[in-house]
Amino acid sequence: MALPLFKVTICGIPELPQHCAVGVSHVLSIIDTHEPRPPALDTYRSIDHELIRFDDVVAEYPGFEACTPAHIEQVLAFGERVHARPDGHVLVHCHAGISRSTAAAAILMTQFAPGNEEEAFLKLLDLRKHGWPNTRMIEFADTLLKRDGAMLRGLVAYRKALLDVKPHLKDVVRNIGRGHEIPT
Known about the structure:
Blueprint: E1 7-12, E2 26-31, E3 48-53, H1 69-83, E4 89-94, H2 100-110, H3 117-127, H4 135-144, H5 150-165, H6 169-175
Parallel strand pairs: 1-4, 2-3, 2-4
Helix pairs in contact: 1-4, 2-3, 2-4, 3-5, 4-5
């Protein structure tokens, strides 16, 4: 099965006002547990909105709420609604539009397209120039969707392609404590 036809836009909270007039039909917000609902969402009319709260961490850390399988089940339930409208336009955002939102976008694109995981992840290169999808989210999605590692292989292919174009990101990723995610 091919990738879905719906349009995907990825952004961070500061960019939300830029997208409210472009025909968005669905918005997936993934924000920190303490973050207030972004007021910019009030400018979106007639949308299907899902707000999911967890922190952008890739492991359990004291003081943070890490992603759980239940959170990814919420993403997949939202994906059911998105896929019901193939002509839709889904906007996925997190705080900065880098980690949780890019992971969620890849999950939505692959949810009903088994065998196209690498293609979906590589599409992120065009959708968001500076993404680094949250590994924990992808691990849970791979398990829930029974992809036997295909999503993780797609993630690695994406990261290798991104680092080929932007090798300086290796230092950025190491500096934020996620150096273990850099593919060898």
